[in-house]
Predict the structure.
Amino acid sequence: MFVRVKKIGAYEYLYLVENAREGGRHVQRVIKALGRRDEVEASGLIDGLIASAARHSRRSIVLSSFYRGQLPELHRLSIGPDLVFGRLWAEMGCRNALKSLVAGLFLRCRARGLSHGAAPADDLGFRPPCQ
């Protein structure tokens, strides 16, 4: 069931409608004419109907309780790529390995009298493809 809006003249009317199958085809049957849209909205009829129907919906009951603050606060964990790769980085020892490589490179540069960051490609482990 659903509410259908039908424009007749200058006004819009609301109808409670259901889909049915008759003779192998689908038709819409009007269950109840609710009235002119502006009058129905002003009277609060739709809000009352929704509130009444919502009492019988599990999903709606949970959401209503949540919005009223009647549910305990839930804690959730974020397991996005940054956390996954951060944990892998730590468990695989990448930080310590990189630290020791950089420290060794720094010491070799210093021994050659180079400022840090000016290491030749050989010290970084890179070799040109053609020598």
Observations:
- Helices lie at 37-43, 45-54, 58-67, 81-91, 94-111.
- Confidence is low (pLDDT under 50) at residues 126-131.
